[in-house]
Design a protein that fits this description.
It comes from Rhodobium gokarnense. Keywords: Coiled coil. Its EC number is 5.4.99.5. Pfam families: CM_2 (PF01817). This is chorismate mutase. The protein is an alpha/beta fold and 280 residues long. The protein has 2 domains: 46 residues; 224 residues, no CATH class. The protein is built from 7 helices and 12 strands. Strands 2-1-3-6-4 form a 5-stranded mixed β-sheet, with helices on both faces. The protein has a 4-stranded antiparallel β-sheet with strand order 8-9-7-10, with no helix packed on it. A 3-stranded mixed β-sheet has the order 5-11-12, with no helix packed on it. Helix 2 packs antiparallel against helix 3. The longest helix is centred in the N-terminal third of the chain and has 47 residues.
């Protein structure tokens, strides 16, 4: 067989292999679309089943965190886990929006471009995004709504906006972002999601508190996750199994004001088998 003949046969084989692979991709695309349609039909049934339940946002932060943990545990191959997170966040947010429409309020006074990236990464493009002047305005908008959420960046400043999270039956922190943490991830601005109290039976892994103490006091204490600081106080988190009254008494702090809670973010830097909670 001549070189030209071998080259022609090789090229023919490559084209046949490419055609087979493309056909398989088309089949998988159709299967994924069918599964999304089936998921949508289940959501329709869920909406009918839940009629008469307590009204309010349909978010279940603990369930979503458990789903992300499962994905992290079973993930393999070259597809970045961050991409999987993004795709599922779009799916989760869209179907949650279909169950109980909501809007997302974001303040524009601190790193607004980065915050918009986080908002779209986690809540997609179907959820209406409303810009407000500052964190207080975002929390106030949630308080007067039924289902709305706020996304507030964890950036130190002059105003202790978290004081608004300590009102009885008022808005609370329900999630901390990003959930998957990595040194090279996109949309990496630390932020918290704020909602009116949710009907979620699963307790958070970390609980948030407000104190007038400064970070220099809390830095000296073990197991404290400082979220944001201002001259008038600090927003921080403790593992949910720690008693806040005992913690405050041992640290010489006044009683702590509860401000919500969140599932512990998961670090995915390095070996995937070494994934661990960021707050460990």
């Amino acid at each position: 067989m001549s070189d030209d003949t071998r080259d022609t046969a090789s090229a023919t084989d490559r084209q046949a292999n490419l055609a087979r692979l493309r056909e398989r991709i088309d089949t998988l695309d159709a299967e994924m679309h069918d599964l999304l349609i089936e998921r949508s039909s289940i959501i329709d049934e869920l909406i009918v089943t839940k009629q008469g339940d307590r009204k309010g946002a349909a978010f279940r932060p603990a369930r979503e965190a458990a789903m992300m943990h499962r994905f992290a545990g079973r993930h393999r191959g070259t597809l970045p886990l961050i991409t999987v997170e993004y795709l599922w966040r779009e799916i989760i947010s869209t179907f949650t929006y279909l169950q109980a429409p909501f809007r997302l309020h974001i303040p524009t006074d601190r790193r607004p471009n980065d915050l918009r990236d986080v908002a779209r990464f986690y809540f997609g493009f179907n959820v209406p995004l409303l810009e407000v002047s500052d964190a207080d305005a975002a929390i106030g908008a949630v308080a007067t709504s039924e289902n709305d959420l706020a996304l507030v960046p964890l950036v130190d400043g002059e105003a202790p906006w978290w004081q608004a999270l300590t009102q009885p039956d008022g808005p609370r922190i329900i999630a901390r972002l990003p959930f998957f943490t990595s040194s090279d991830r996109p949309a990496d601005l630390p932020a918290v999601v704020i909602s009116n109290p949710l009907d979620d039976p699963t307790p958070p892994e970390w609980r948030c508190y407000v104190t007038a103490a400064g970070p220099e006091v809390l830095d000296a204490l073990s197991g404290v996750d400082i979220l944001a600081t201002a001259p008038a106080g600090t927003l921080f988190a403790l593992a949910a199994d720690r008693d806040p009254k005992t913690f405050a008494a041992d640290a010489g702090l006044p009683p702590l004001a509860a401000a919500g809670g969140f599932a512990a973010p998961l670090s995915i830097d390095g070996d995937p088998s070494q994934k661990k909670s960021q707050t460990e």
